[in-house]
Each structure stands twice: as C-alpha cells, then as structure tokens.
Write a structure and sequence with these properties.
Rossmann fold; 2 domains; 8 helices; four-stranded parallel β-sheet
Length: 221
C-alpha cells in the first residue's frame, strides 16, 4: 500500500528553478516499483531561504503542506538545508519525515572522516553550526565556507560552479576535508562537475535524503 503512495520532496521556497534542478537530480532514484517521487514548490514561501526569519516562515508552510497531503503521502523530504518544519512534521503520527541537512551530513559521514560544507552565504553558517551541535557531529565538520551567492544567483551556472569549485578546493586544501556536502538544495545541478573538479566525494543532500527515505519505505522502518 505504501509503495503506491507519493514521496513528496518539498522545496519550501517559491523558486521553481530550484525545484526543477532538484527534480532532475532525483531521476536516477525513480523506479516503477517504488513510491512516486513528486517535487513541489511552495508558492507562498520566500524566494530563497537565507535567514532565520525565512526558515521560520517556511516551517509553517511545510507543516501545513504535510497535514494537507498526509493521506496520499508515503513520506516527506524537506528540500532545504535548514530543514524547516522537519521536527514539526515528525510530531504527526506515522509520517516519515526527513530533512536534507540531517541526511546529507549522515551520508557524508559514511564516505569520509572530515566533512566540508559549502554554504551559499555567511549568514547561513551559524544556523548550520547549531544543527551540527544538536546532532552531536560538530567534531566531524572540519569547515564550512560560503560561496557568497543568493539562492536566485545559483541559476548563473558558470559563476556558481566557479565559486563552488574554488570553495571546495579551499575546504580540501586548507581544512583537509575528505568529503564535501553541498549546503543548499539549489546546488543540485552541480554535484558531478564539482566532484570531478575537486577530486573528493560530493554529497548532494536531497539525493541523500530521498535515497534514505526509499530504503526506509521498502524495509517498513
């Protein structure tokens, strides 16, 4: 029964370009014998989730979406690296709720010892540090650096990839990271090219969260 339902991947911002990039990145995970993966854009959300205020506003919208769609849902993945609404959805009984920040870091910990995170803006980093502390993994995250681009500016592929490669190499060479995590769902289209350029494993966190969700659904966890 659960395999005939929909796994909703929620982009909590209103940027449809971000949703399209996420959707394309999830194509390798789609199969006929698994829940349908549907990426949705919350039109009422901020254009980009960059501040704590953006996160707080988005969390309410994410929870509302989950409540409205819980009957047809196999589960929900919150596709924002601040995981807005994650713990609120987990208060709904018998609902699978995963966040890309949590799943991205947990996946990276299986691929390397020293994690480096690529953020979009400096203002995002303290918020992420609070997450690592709450998870008890702050000692594994050896560095987080920002590329200095807003969510909307990630659509400029040439400039974004150049900034991500430069930042990834700094995490590798200065912080001695041996695995990288992309710290924004809007970075999804750049994973393979970043990995090729930097020579380290790169985790795209929405792929990580959806992979984890599909495994749990198959196993009934």
């Amino acid at each position: 029964m659960i395999m005939s339902k929909t796994l909703y991947v929620i982009n909590p911002n209103s940027n449809t370009d971000v949703t399209a990039g996420i959707d394309a990145a999830l194509d390798p995970l789609r199969s006929a014998d698994a829940p349908r993966i549907e990426c949705v854009t919350l039109a009422e959300g901020p254009r980009g989730i960059q501040t704590q205020d953006d996160v707080d506003r988005a969390a309410v919208l994410v929870r509302r979406f989950a409540e409205e769609h819980r009957q047809q849902a196999a589960g929900f993945v919150t596709a924002c690296f601040s995981d807005p609404g994650l713990h609120s959805i987990r208060e709904i009984p018998d609902v699978l709720s995963l966040g890309i920040s949590e799943c991205g870091v947990l996946t990276a910990m299986t691929m390397g010892l020293r994690l480096g995170v690529i953020a979009i803006l400096d203002i995002s980093i303290p918020r992420h540090l609070r997450t690592w502390a709450a998870m008890g993994v702050q000692d594994r995250v050896v560095g987080e650096l920002a590329i200095g681009r807003t969510v909307a500016e990630l659509a400029d592929s040439e400039a974004t990839l150049e900034a991500m490669i430069r930042t990834g190499k700094a995490l590798r060479d200065t912080h001695r990271a041996d695995v990288l995590v992309m710290g924004c769902a809007g970075m999804a289209p750049y994973r393979q090219r970043l990995q090729d350029a930097v020579g380290l494993p790169v985790v795209e966190p929405t792929q990580a969260a959806v992979s984890m969700a599909l495994g749990r659904l198959r196993l009934g966890w």
